[in-house]
Amino acid sequence: MSLILGISAPTLAQAASADCVPLKALQPPQANTTAPHKPFFIDTSGLSGSGAMPIHDPHDPLYPEAIDLPDNALPPVDKTGNYILGTSHTLPAQWQNIQLPEGRIISFTLASSPTSGYSPGTVRDDPAPCTTSTGEAGMVHVSTSVPGDPSNLTVPGAHPAPWTRTVDVYIPPNTPTDRPLPFLIFGDGSNNGLYPGRDLFAMVDGLMKEKRIPPMIVIGVGAGGGDAQGSERGREYDTMSGAYADWVEAHVLPLVEKKASLTLSRNPEERATMGFSSSGAAAFAMAWFRPNLYHRVLAYSPSLVNQQWPHDPALPGGGWQLHSPWAGTPEAVPPHPGAALIPAAPLAPLHIWYEVGDQDLFYPVPSMPDGMHDWVLAGENMARVLADKGYDYQFVFARNARHVDGPTIEQTLPEALEWLWRPHMPPTTP
Predict the structure, then answer these.
(1) Which residues contact 289 (CB under 8 A, 6 or more apart)?
(2) Is 175 helix (H, G, I), strand (E, B) or coil?
(3) Please, which residues have CB within 8 angstroms of residue 312's CB and are 6 or more apart in sequence?
(4) Crossing angle, helix 406-421 and helix 199-209, to 10 degrees?
(5) 302 with 281: CB under 8 angstroms?
(6) The pLDDT of residue 137 is above 50
(7) Quick count: other Cβ atoms within 10 Å of Cβ 33?
């Protein structure tokens, strides 16, 4: 999800008679903000309204403890835990004059077909003047949720449609061809615009030259189109299952090997998945549901919230249920379908680095007052779960940062990649 919201526009109640509503809306009308023990509670107590988005306090008592860093300081690459960045996000000096990558870049296009997977694709039609614009002044079509269950969204404008996407592959210079190679794969590739462009390839080049990360192939996979519920991008990234990882394994990686004349590693310790917003949620899902394929996860503003569509009654909270129970049941425990997944499962051999901003997304879906659409709270809940289980993880809370915040990504990505690819650290006992 990549919608930027504010809090100064007309309320949803004022716009209820229109076919579309302003994105600048803090929360849906008739939301439960006063009864914590009732279903679908939305906690607004830790938010400040002094900005384009509500500003979250990193020391909110709801959040796990974290270490404050001096301004422009970064978390240590050899430590785990929770860290808070300062308000300045300056590109490190060594990356300010980044050079073009010295290796090869191979690009190819995938299109939907009966044999391509995700066929047919999905698209959402929003009637004019509603759009899926990411601009702050944008409008969005009013979808509806199932009566009595705001976590189950209906999207009447969704229908089958074809898709196309671009895949970019970076092969560093002097890449060996006589053995399987580690790789980093990321979503929201070149046809979406969320990731930091091909500068990522150059940054990886520099880190490899400095031997801060091992030699590897980097693969950027474009999204299937659109955004959020009813879109192909949302369908692929926000579905909490191994489906996207399986699709990549069957339809992307074999073509990468063929077109680049190389072999990719099958060792999950040598495979990393990365994403931004909903593709960040997909990065988590690829490793959680397919730990036989991926052990390393890197994500910015991951949508660990209830964006899954179509609604799955076996996992009614979507990505929120990775870390927390479905909000429609105050005390969901196994075998209830609303139980949280990671807390109830054995420790998985994963290494996880992720970030959220203090002005990250909060209730961008007007029709879903479901208690599961606070990106920051989701990230904090995940940090608590990972710490309690003894995971190898680092969580960064960035002050003065919005959703998929460009300066924050540039500031932190080199160290994040170094942390992610450092030698394996055995799990700790909580």
Answers:
(1) 240, 241, 242, 245
(2) coil
(3) 239, 240, 318
(4) 40
(5) yes
(6) no
(7) 14
pLDDT(242) > 60: yes
CB 264 within 8 A of CB 257: yes
The residue with tokens 């999207």 is 155
∠ CA(107), CA(101), CA(225), 5° rounding?
35
pLDDT at 198 over 70: no
User: Nearest to residue 134, comparing CAs of 49, 186, 194, 190?
Assistant: 194
User: Which residue ranges make up each domain of the chain?
Assistant: 20-421
* Contacts (Cβ under 8 Å, ≥6 apart) of 352: 284, 287, 296, 297, 386, 391, 392, 393, 394
Residue 134 DSSP SS3: coil
In angstroms, the CA 85 to CA 68 distance is 7
From the CB of residue 420, how many other CB atoms can be counted at a distance below 10 Å?
19
Residue 393, helix vs strand vs coil: strand
Predicted TM-score (pTM) of the model is 0.90
Distance CA 197, CA 189 (A): 8
Q: Mean pLDDT, to the nearest integer, of 394-406?
A: 96
State the amino acid at position 247 in one-letter form. W
Is residue 168 within 8 Å of residue 107, measured between CB atoms? yes
- CATH code matching the domain that covers 20-421, chosen among 3.40.50.1820, 3.40.30.10, 1.10.390.10, 3.40.50.2300: 3.40.50.1820
How far apart CA 224 and CA 134 sit, in angstroms, is 17
Question: 417 by DSSP, 3-state: which?
Answer: helix
Residues contacting residue 370 through CB under 8 Å, at least 6 positions apart: 40, 145, 150, 151, 306, 327, 328
The pLDDT value given to residue 22: 57
CA–CA gap between residue 166 and residue 153 (Å, rounded)? 30
296-300 and 351-359: which strand pairing? Answer: parallel
- Lowest average pLDDT, out of 361-370, 372-381, 392-401, goes to 361-370
* Per-residue CA distances from 424 to 350, 392, 414, 430 (Å): 10, 9, 18, 18
Q: Which strand (E) or helix (H) includes residue 278?
A: helix 278-289
- Counting Cβ atoms within 10 Å, is residue 52 exposed (0-12), middle (13-18) or buried (19+)? middle
